[in-house]
C-alpha cells in the first residue's frame, strides 16, 4: 500500500478499481523530499512490528525483479526509495535482498539495472560517504560483481 497506494496483483500490475491512497511512493514526485516521509513511516512501523521486515523484503524483491513493468519515472522513485532505506539505516533490511534480484539476465540486458543502480548510487551518496557505499556493497556481496550490473555489450576490463 505504501508503494502503490493500494493492493497489487500478480506481477505488480496496479489494479484500477477501488480507492487509492493519495500518499504513495509511485504517485509522488521523484525527489528525495517527497519520498523520505514514506521511508520514515515504514521505519516507524517496523520498529513497532518487526515481523513485517520479511514482508518488506518480499515486496522489494518482487518490485526489483519486475523493473521492466514500471515506467522510467517509477523506476527512479524505487531507486530513490531503496537508497533512502539504506541511508536511514532501516533496521533489518539486508542488502543482498535488494541487490541479488537485480542480477536477472533480462533486466541487465535491457539496461534497466544500470539505470536503477546509477540512480541508487547518486541518491545514496548525497548523505553518505563512498566508504559507506563500499561497506553496503560488501554486506550485499556485490563489491566484486559490479560489472554484472552492466549489459554484456558494455562490459570491459576497463
TrEMBL record:
<dbReference type="GO" id="GO:0016020">
    <property type="term" value="C:membrane"/>
</dbReference>
<dbReference type="GO" id="GO:0005737">
    <property type="term" value="C:cytoplasm"/>
</dbReference>
<protein>
    <recommendedName>
        <fullName>5MP1/2-like HEAT domain-containing protein</fullName>
    </recommendedName>
</protein>
<dbReference type="InterPro" id="IPR057397">
    <property type="entry name" value="HEAT_5MP1_2"/>
</dbReference>
<dbReference type="Pfam" id="PF25504">
    <property type="entry name" value="HEAT_5MP1_2"/>
</dbReference>
<dbReference type="InterPro" id="IPR051245">
    <property type="entry name" value="eIF5-mimic_regulator"/>
</dbReference>
<feature type="domain" description="5MP1/2-like HEAT">
    <location>
        <begin position="1"/>
        <end position="158"/>
    </location>
</feature>
Amino acid at each position: 500500500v505504501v508503494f502503490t497506494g493500494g493492493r497489487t496483483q500478480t506481477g505488480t500490475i496496479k489494479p484500477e478499481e477501488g480507492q487509492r491512497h493519495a500518499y504513495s511512493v509511485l504517485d509522488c514526485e521523484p525527489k528525495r523530499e517527497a519520498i523520505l516521509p514514506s521511508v520514515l513511516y515504514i521505519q516507524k512501523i517496523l520498529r513497532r512490528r518487526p515481523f513485517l521486515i520479511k514482508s518488506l523484503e518480499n515486496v522489494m524483491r518482487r518490485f526489483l525483479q519486475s523493473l521492466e513493468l514500471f515506467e522510467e519515472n517509477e523506476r527512479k522513485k524505487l531507486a530513490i526509495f531503496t537508497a533512502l532505506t539504506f541511508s536511514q539505516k532501516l533496521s533489518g533490511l539486508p542488502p543482498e535482498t535488494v541487490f541479488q534480484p537485480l542480477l536477472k539476465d533480462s533486466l541487465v540486458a535491457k539496461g534497466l539495472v544500470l539505470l536503477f543502480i546509477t540512480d541508487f548510487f547518486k541518491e545514496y551518496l548525497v548523505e553518505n560517504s563512498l566508504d559507506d557505499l563500499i561497506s553496503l556493497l560488501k554486506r550485499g556481496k556485490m563489491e566484486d560483481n559490479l560489472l554484472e550490473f552492466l549489459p554484456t555489450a558494455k562490459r570491459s576490463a576497463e
